[in-house]
Design goal:
- This protein is α/β, with parallel strands linked by helices.
- It has two domains: 172 residues, Rossmann fold; 91 residues, 2-Layer Sandwich (Pantoate--beta-alanine Ligase, Chain: A,domain 2), CATH 3.30.1300.10.
- The chain is built from ten helices and nine strands.
- α7 links the parallel β5 and β6.
- α6 packs across α7 and α9 runs antiparallel to α10.
- The longest helix is centred in the middle third of the chain and has 16 residues.
- 38% of the residues are buried.
- The site of adenosine monophosphate (AMP) has 17 residues, from α2 and β5.
Length: 281
Amino acid sequence: MKIIRSIDEMTRLTADLKRNNETIGYVPTMGYLHEGHLSLMKKAREENSVVVISVFVNPLQFGPNEDYDSYPRDIERDELLAKTVGVDYLFYPSALDMYPDEMTVEIKVKKRVNVLCGRKRPGHFDGVATVLIKLFSIIQPTNVYFGLKDAQQVAVVSGLIKDFNFPICLCAIETVREEDGLAKSSRNVYLTEEERKEAPYLYQSLLKAKNEIVAGERNPEIITTKMKELLQEFISGSIDYVEIYSYPELEELQVIEGKVIIALAVRFSKVRLIDNIIFEL
Ligand code: AMP
């Protein structure tokens, strides 16, 4: 596996790969890799002749009071883990190289962002869309792999790919969880011991909601109210949101039907966690 730090070098490599008709499987990440990231890379390895990942903590997608500075980083560890799943190239640009000057063009995501994290983190998906347009241009992937853990991101990126006619196929991969159900996340390291014990209730509340819907309850408000009650009973953190929408459109539902997402975000003392489940009725 080769580490590539400069955009120029990555661009030259992309041109070589394209000339050789390689299929490029690409996994964008912010690093501090875990099994969730690795499942995306394994899938990319199965489906492409070359696998490229990027590790870039994108300043544009963090709000002023968010965790950009404290976001966990460990490139040596990432390098070792990426090697174990057969990644060919790890692209590791600096923020200065990615954003040398103030940009001429501003990207604003209009749809699918007025709910969930998009509503709670203004500008977040504008930053995600901006960095992905740059990374897609530099790496020119055949297939790109995203996790459904960030389901709103998948919904926004599929719109981005369509709107800008990127010749890229988006593959959405199921959430990888700890044995107790907690969704794997780089941010889990910031849970206290007590909070770590509580955190599985996030997934528990999602499963309970799904069971009630499958059993016949169709009123979104009744479901989200019950979820909030369960969470408030078992976790010390505060609920940021618990919401149900159509997926991937992320539109409000009077009655739960079709393909839906139940999603939640919870703030613990040092970390905010998200989780969701998506299913079709
Ligand atoms: P991040 O480094 O958090 O930006 O994540 C990079 C990619 O890995 C995104 O597409 C995430 O959705 C995906 N990812 C993160 N956690 C998980 C997980 N537990 N299971 C599956 N994919 C994940």
